[in-house]
Structure formats: C-alpha cells, structure tokens
Amino acid sequence: MSGCERDQHQLGGYVLNGLDPAETREVEAHLERCPDCREQHAGLAGTPALLELARTAPAQVPERVRDAIVAGTARAQVRRRWARIAVAASVVAAVIGGLAGWQLTPTRSPEVVVALDGEEPYDASGSVSFSQRNGSVLVRLELEDLEPLPEPGTYEAWLYTGDRRIMSIGQLSHDAERLTVELTADGSLEDFQTFWVTAEPDARDPAHAGETVLRADIPTLR
C-alpha cells in the first residue's frame, strides 16, 4: 500500500483521535504535503460533531451498532483499534442516514377540527379538520346524513382562496349514512379562507353550480 493510500485509510481514526501518537504525527506530516488528502480530511472534519449529535440524541443506538461495539472489544488489541474506527464510521453513516430520513419524512402540523354548519333544506352534519403536511393541506371529513342525490348529481368539496378563487378538492360518495374521507390541496393553509360542500346537479360539470350543504371558516394554525 502506498503512503498516500495508507494515510487515507487512517484519516477516519485521525479525526476521531483513535490513532497512537506516532501514527498521528505520520498522518499530520502527510497532510502538510498532500492536497488530495487535505481535501478528504476537510470532508471528515465534521464527523466528531455528528457523533456528539448521535450521543445526545434521544433515539436508541441501533442494535447492529451495539453488537459491533461488543464484538470489537473481544478482539486483539491491534484489531480493537480498527474496530472502534469501523464502528464510529457506522454510527456516522447511521446519523447521516437518519438526518436525511428526517428531512424527507413528511412533517405534519397539529390538526384543527371545526364543526360544519348545515344549510337548509339539507339535514347533513359533521366536522372537518385541517392540517399542514409539507406543501399540501390535508382535509379530513366526518359527515353524516348525506341524502342520496338524483343522477348525475354529486356532493363536492371546495376551498375558497384569499385571491377569490374557488378550488374543487374532490367529489364525495353518498352511498352510506356516515362518510369519512381525506382530501388534499396543494399550497399552504394560509392560502384558504372557507371550506364548503355543495350538492352539484351534474358530476360531469367541473363548475361550481350547486347549493351549499355544509360550510366552515378555515382557522389559521399560527
């Protein structure tokens, strides 16, 4: 193995203070004269901070990492040093993967439930809840007593935006006395002011032309 390759293999142990003094001096001397290894060292410089984050985070350390630590302590002294470095690298990978997963996991705001106001002559009742999930608004409906509509009629859910636009977020089945459904709309909850359900005379017509059955003002989640 060339000197450069050997010192590259030891960079992980160097940033984690896992080398003996002689090895540390050897790596430092190599870094002074090798720009490629200095670049690799700069990329690893944040590793101790990530390990500290993993140590203080409330999540449990994965069993495979604990097993690796236990196995490492049973090895001979020369193998123990490299086992510690390998385990540290595994923890770093787990932390980085966990942080990436945390960033990709959809975040959801607290759910706010609002009672729906019924409109005559309809007997329907229920509630609607709103929550923010990343770039979408999640609307959850709990409805009762939606009476059957003559074909081709349908119930439809709408949102009214702050810039005076009306947005359909879906047609609703009325085959049962109770209905639970989740709908979504792109945007922020702050973009919308009113939610309502209408009885549309023709499911094939995308325009809002029916009577209001239920309505609610949308609260802010601030």
Notes on the structure:
This protein is of the alpha+beta class and 222 residues long. The chain has two domains: 102 residues, no CATH class; 106 residues, Immunoglobulin-like. 38% of the residues lie in helices and 29% in strands. The chain has six helices and nine strands, in the order H-H-H-H-H-H-E-E-E-E-E-E-E-E-E. The strands form two sheets. Strands 2-9-8-5-6 form a five-stranded antiparallel β-sheet, with no helix packed on it. A four-stranded antiparallel β-sheet has the order 1-3-4-7, with no helix packed on it. The protein is rod-shaped, with a radius of gyration of 30 Å. It starts with a helix and ends in a 5-residue tail after the last strand. The model has no long low-confidence stretch (mean pLDDT 77).
Structure at a glance:
With 222 residues, the chain is α+β, with helices and mostly antiparallel strands. It has helices at residues 3-15, 21-33, 35-44, 47-56, 63-73, 77-104; strands spanning 112-115, 117-118, 125-133, 136-144, 154-161, 166-172, 178-186, 192-200, 211-217. 38% of the residues lie in helices and 29% in strands.
